[in-house]
Design goal:
By secondary structure, this protein is an alpha/beta fold. Helix content is 31%, strand content 25%. Strand 6, helix 5 and strand 7 form a beta-alpha-beta unit.
C-alpha cells in the first residue's frame, strides 16, 4: 500500500518551534483532519510537509509511492477579483509550465474530465472574480487535481462557506480521495466535517503536544466529540 510517512517532524515559524517530534502515517485512500486552536501550527505543519517533500534527502518524511506530485489548496489566495481570468484559463496554468505554451490532446481531455468530476463545466467561461465562495473552492480544488497528484493538502478550504457548501465540498473531497486512492490532509475548524463519513483519522494539535486518532478505533465517542468541539465550537455544528 502506498503511503506518506512523517517521522519526528518539527513545526517551526522562523526560529520558533511550535511542535516537536510529530510522527504519523497517512495511507492511500485516507483523509486525515488536522484540528486545533489557532496558533498551534496547523498551517505551518502543511508548509513544513511541502518543504520536506521538495527535499530529496529529507530525514523527516518518506513517500512510499512512485507518484510524488502534490496538490495544495491554501486558506487564502492573493487573487485580484478584477483580473479577467476565466475558470478555463485558471485551470490550465499548472499545465503550461513547460516548453510548449499550448495544451496537448491528452491535457485537454484531462482538463475536461476534471471539470466534469468537480461539476464546474458550466463555469468554464466565467471569470473567477464573479464566482460564489463554493464555486471558487471547487475551481481551486480542480486546479490542485489537474496535475494528477498523489497527495492533497487542504488548508481550511471550506472556510467562509455556508454549511451546505461545506458539506458538498467535503463529500466531493471524500469521493475523489477514495476513488483515486489519494492521500489527503485537511485542516478544518468545522465540527460538522470531523465525522467518519468524511474523515478516517484526526491529528489534534495542542500547545506543545499532539494526539493522533483513528476514528474507527476510538472507543470513547463522547470524549472524541468534546475534543473536536474544544477546537471547533458549537457554532460549527451542522444540523
Amino acid at each position: 500500500m502506498e503511503k506518506l510517512e512523517i517521522n519526528n517532524i518539527k513545526i517551526k515559524v522562523g526560529n520558533k518551534i511550535l511542535q516537536e517530534d510529530i510522527s504519523f502515517v497517512a495511507k492511500e485512500g485516507e483523509i486525515i483532519a488536522i484540528i486545533g486552536e489557532n496558533g498551534v501550527g496547523k498551517t505551518s505543519l502543511l508548509k513544513n510537509i511541502i518543504l520536506e517533500l521538495n527535499n530529496k534527502q529529507s530525514e523527516f518524511l518518506k513517500i512510499h509511492t512512485s507518484n510524488k506530485k502534490l496538490g495544495y489548496v491554501p486558506q487564502f489566495r492573493d487573487f485580484n477579483d478584477e483580473v479577467p481570468l476565466s475558470v478555463y484559463d485558471f485551470l490550465t496554468l499548472p499545465l503550461k509550465q513547460k516548453i510548449f505554451p499550448w495544451l496537448s490532446k491528452k491535457e485537454i481531455i484531462k482538463l475536461n474530465n476534471t471539470m466534469k468530476t468537480m461539476k464546474i463545466e458550466h463555469l468554464k467561461n466565467k471569470r473567477i472574480g464573479t464566482l460564489s465562495g463554493g464555486e471558487r473552492q471547487r475551481v481551486y480544488l480542480a486546479q490542485a487535481l489537474i496535475i494528477d497528484p498523489k497527495i492533497i493538502l487542504l488548508d481550511e478550504f471550506t472556510s467562509n462557506l455556508d454549511k451546505k457548501s461545506e458539506i458538498d465540498c467535503m463529500k466531493l473531497v471524500t469521493e475523489i480521495t477514495k476513488n483515486n486512492k489519494l492521500i489527503t490532509l485537511c485542516i478544518t475548524h468545522e465540527l460538522s466535517l470531523i465525522d467518519k463519513k468524511y474523515v478516517d483519522k484526526i491529528l489534534y494539535l495542542d500547545k506543545d503536544n499532539y494526539t493522533f486518532i483513528d476514528i474507527e478505533e476510538y472507543k470513547n465517542h463522547e470524549q472524541l466529540f468534546k475534543l473536536c468541539k474544544h477546537c471547533a465550537g458549537d457554532k460549527n455544528i451542522y444540523v
